[in-house]
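Problem statement: downstream parser choked on a complex file, so we are re-checking the raw output for the S-adenosyl-L-homocysteine run. The parser issue turned out to be on our end (a line-ending mismatch), but while we're here, posting the original submission so the record is complete.
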Amino acid sequence: MPRSHAQLPRLFVEPDLGSGTRLTLGKDQSLYLAAVLRKAVGDAVVLFNGRDGAWLCRLTSDSKKSVDLEVVEQIAAQTPASDLWYGFAPLKSERLDYVVQKAVEMGAGVIQPVMTQFTQVHRLKTERLAANAMEAAEQCEVLSVPEIAPEITLDRLLSDWDAAHGDRKLILADEGEASSSPISALEPLRGARIGLLVGPEGGFSDTEREKLRALPFVVPISLGPRILRADTAAVAALAVIQSIIGDWR
Ligand code: SAH
């Protein structure tokens, strides 16, 4: 997206976007624009819907209850949603928010909570995850909001993998992997469909690690000699993956 529009607020909306169309925002987004940001008639904002790219829009009314906008011009063409699958064992409250937001910023296209033996969170608020993903997408200028998949157990994920993911390789952030550079493990995956799996605060159980490492589609990597917290490991692993085999389009 042109940097000239980088200062404008960006909001995700559902309706189609095209020159001359007009739309009215809901209560929350209207309050945010008119009251929090004090936007007024004539001010510009950027809207995207995951299908039509990003559009420069102008306020035609600035009521805190329902802001009206007219769609002016497209400022970024729609790009394909990311195919990077990111599986993680849910963490507690704000660390969970953090992990979801960082996954979006780091290019995840599907965010999949995976319940492992030592996962300490059992009642996931999917709408909270979706709101964090949406907020991160608006802030980091991606044009598609990543999908938050319904939680799944590790056993079910692995037994369904071939049917659900075909030839996708699953990169395993394995705290037990001998500390060596992940470059040699990741290089052969360049151009392949990939996923990443990060364990919970308590790590993977020995049984889980053995099961994972025995699977042909699993590629274990080390993130170095120190044990990282799960949320640190998520960002580190995504950064390593994007640096070595990411799509820098
Ligand atoms: N049992 C430790 C491990 C938790 S680390 C503890 O309780 O602190 C949580 C997750 O982060 C691990 O399951 C793994 O997916 C990832 N991780 C942490 N350090 C790592 C490393 N050095 N290499 C690869 N993955 C790591």
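For whoever reads this later: The domain at 85-245 is CATH 3.40.1280.10 (Alpha/beta knot).
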